[in-house]
Amino acid sequence: MTGAKFENKLSTPGLAFQPLYKQVEEHVTQLIVEQRWKPGEMLPNEFELAREFGVSQGTVRKALNALTDNKVLTRRQGVGTFVSEHTGHQALYRFFPVVEDGNSPELPRAEIVSLTRTEANERVARNLGLTVGEQVILLARKRFLNDIVCLLEDIYLPEKFFPGLVEEPVIPHTLYHFYQINFNLTVHKTTDRIKAILADASDANELGIKEGDPVLMFTRLTESLDGKIIEYRINRCRSDNYHYLVDFD
Amino acid sequence: MTGAKFENKLSTPGLAFQPLYKQVEEHVTQLIVEQRWKPGEMLPNEFELAREFGVSQGTVRKALNALTDNKVLTRRQGVGTFVSEHTGHQALYRFFPVVEDGNSPELPRAEIVSLTRTEANERVARNLGLTVGEQVILLARKRFLNDIVCLLEDIYLPEKFFPGLVEEPVIPHTLYHFYQINFNLTVHKTTDRIKAILADASDANELGIKEGDPVLMFTRLTESLDGKIIEYRINRCRSDNYHYLVDFD
DNA sequence: TAGTGGTCTAGACCACATT
DNA sequence: ATGTGGTCTAGACCACTAC
Fold it and tell me: What pTM, to 2 d.p., does this model score?
């Protein structure tokens, strides 16, 4: 199907013809970005959406299932189709790769160290796709597993995507859910780059290790559902009793 | 569908009812493990498979597409459906996460340092699911990016899964393809656990860095298509100019 | 009981690659 | 021209959940 064959009600943008189900996928994503349905809310059923978009129910199903694979939607048999919310154990584990040696993955506790506004230096600007000097928010946190500090985070956020965040009185532990609810920014994917470094005096002190001890350092770039780079993190992780877990399949 | 409703020709194992398309998926996987079709070979078309299994073409399609998502099969429009081979750029990048800083992912060269038979010590046995003292093969390699050594690998293989490997006169660089072709072991997924350590004298010498420099160490467990753990790797990677790249989505 | 998603089928037609 | 996978549709029925 080239996009012109059927009379459907999707906004087909000009010449880049896509299969109908792909158009439905993008259209539904767009509607979520525009907050027609908010996180946690239920979508109309397949037949209603099919009627609205002018396609068959099977085509809607294919699109909704693809979005479910991408974790954008959650479907529950007998209940309905929902916009995924970054809450619940599964969603929280999804982007936290640090595990205590010999243990199963667990959820960490977070403690805010500081929250300030500053100007992007060259490195931050390059990573966030900003120009040097643009306003960014720097959020520093410590994270704990079993009440032992395991990770230090410096989180840089473009202020234009997070207006007013720096004045927020209280920032919850579940940051990605907070982005989603308060700034309509749903985290969609992340890229981590991992290196080994030696602890400097300050990090060693905060992590409870010695200066010069090996530390796992990973930087993260986070992309939202609508394709914006919304976060740049610099993480330093104790490596004596923790590791970074990756599955390829 | 509970598995008993339709008269199909799949070996439904007793009571663990599965959807038909899931049964087809497992059956096709089993046939690949049994080498009814070898890597690179083409399967019969959807209608033929549907007739053979006693299900509809749409059900076969759903199963084959799922296996394609899992990289077990490769489908090409107008051509056919093929058993995936661990060759070709895409398949080779898939399990190699080390990238030179500031560069795009590239394929490394491999050089064999030694190939010996030994007995599994406690650590190796535990990771490979063997008993201490079982025969294992130890393959040590160096890997190069742009002709600079970046990674040292100690690869432990249970001899029972790789009979005769230790006498092989020549081992190719593309190990996972070699496992697949010569031992009918298709790598399906891997788990890496990453830590930061300090280089010991030997590793530092081989990697061209100084003793005590930070090094990225990651261990890998590799699982085959039929669910066996076939490989345990201990990797040490230069961290001065290289990093480990992970995407979550 | 009503409403939802999940499975399975059948068939028409399109797009692509090879001969 | 032929054969393959890809898309789209239509409809029947099942399984699960909530009320």
Answer: 0.92
